[in-house]
Design a protein that fits this description.
The structure is a single chain. The chain is an alpha+beta fold. The protein has 3 domains: 2-76 and 150-189; 81-139, no CATH class; 200-277, no CATH class. The chain has 12 helices and 8 strands. The strands form 3 sheets. The protein has a 4-stranded antiparallel beta sheet with strand order 5-6-7-8. Strands 1-2 form a two-stranded antiparallel sheet. A two-stranded parallel sheet has the order 3-4. The radius of gyration is 23 Å and the shape is globular.
Length: 341
């Protein structure tokens, strides 16, 4: 079994952190892997500034809560939907499910839940048993500046190494090492050539917020606090970097309300993008490198008996693609973004 941890970089792209081969996906394997991950990352505060997203694997849930007790742990909304959808297949319920999970404010979330309840109260009851605070945007912590509620980033890494996964374990690990080693250099080189302050993908999203801000009316309450009127009224606090809609709080880059305030003050919305999305932050993450590894003929010879680990082969041909839910559209990945463990 190959265990992986994949994070998001400052340009919201895949950044493989760690991978390891273990005998199986059980409590002992996850405990060892997560403990080694914490040691390598030099985490000493119990993970207070970290967020994990997983697919409700029980062994992983237990281990993270013990080893990283202060980390936020989100459940993948796509996996929750796949299980919930087996019983409740109505298309209108599907739309309301994703509307509720993607709602940034509690008011919008509760409205979606009420609309769902009017169609099928049993569907709402089943959904609320999943602990909405683990996969609904309106309840997520804002410290990591990430609004992701699905772990598609882990699936992206799975596709990145799909050819390597079919090889012998040693060659598989070597192929993964070379792919990640080369990716670090390629991404660093590409970003170094760009004359930007904000990473391109974030800048693109910021431009969308700017384009939506023209409808907003701004009323100053003080030098730092403003009331912004669009379809409804929100409060923007520049000093505390917060907006009532919670998009700026959770994502780390300005929503349309903040862009409107920036225009009112004759300032640039880019000034209000969190430093985690700056080019300098990106370059710092990619300044590390993985050393090359010579072929076996150059290795130091040792005389130590070594037995291979026990192998437990599953029946049938090995699978290359993840198992999809029977009701999941194979051609559509949705509009959700991802990171994951």
């Amino acid at each position: 079994m190959l265990l992986t941890t994949v994070r998001r970089d400052a340009n919201e792209q895949m950044y493989p952190l760690a991978w390891a081969v273990v005998e199986g996906e059980n409590n002992d394997s996850w405990e060892w892997f997560i403990h080694e991950l914490m040691h390598c990352l030099e985490v000493t505060d119990g993970g207070a500034s970290w967020t994990f997203i997983s697919d409700q694997q029980k062994g992983l849930l237990n281990v993270v809560s013990c080893i990283w007790p202060y980390a936020e742990h989100r459940n993948c909304a796509r996996h929750i939907y796949a299980n919930w959808h087996k019983t409740f297949k109505d298309e209108e319920l599907k739309e309301l499910y994703w509307k509720s999970t993607r709602a940034y404010s509690e008011g919008d979330y509760l409205q979606a839940i009420e609309d769902m309840k009017s169609i099928n109260p049993d569907a709402v009851e089943a959904l609320l048993k999943q602990n909405p605070k683990w996969f609904n945007k309106c309840y997520l912590d804002t410290h990591t500046k990430c609004d992701v509620i699905v772990n598609n980033m882990a699936e992206t890494f799975n596709g990145f190494i799909i050819n390597a996964r079919s090889k012998h374990i040693i060659h598989m690990l070597e192929d993964i090492r070379i792919q990640v080693m080369s990716r670090l250099v390629t991404k660093r080189t590409e970003m170094a050539a760009k004359d930007v302050i904000i990473c391109p993908k974030i800048q693109e999203k910021l431009e969308f917020s700017k384009g939506s801000s023209y409808r907003c009316e701004v009323y100053p309450s003080s030098y730092q606090v403003f009331q912004v009127r669009d379809f409804d009224d929100v409060s923007v606090d520049l000093e505390n970097r917060t907006c009532t809609c919670r998009k700026w709080d959770l994502r780390g880059y300005p929503c349309k309300h903040v862009c409107a305030v920036a225009g009112f003050l004759h300032k640039s919305p880019e000034d209000y993008v969190d430093v985690c999305y700056h080019k300098d932050t990106y370059m710092k993450a990619y300044e590390v490198s993985i050393p090359p590894l010579p072929s076996e003929r150059y290795w130091t010879k040792i005389h130590q008996p070594m037995d291979p680990p026990p192998i437990k082969s599953a029946p049938g041909r090995p699978k290359k693609n993840r198992k999809r839910d029977p009701y999941e559209d194979p051609k559509s990945q949705g509009n959700s973004q991802s990171m994951g463990l």
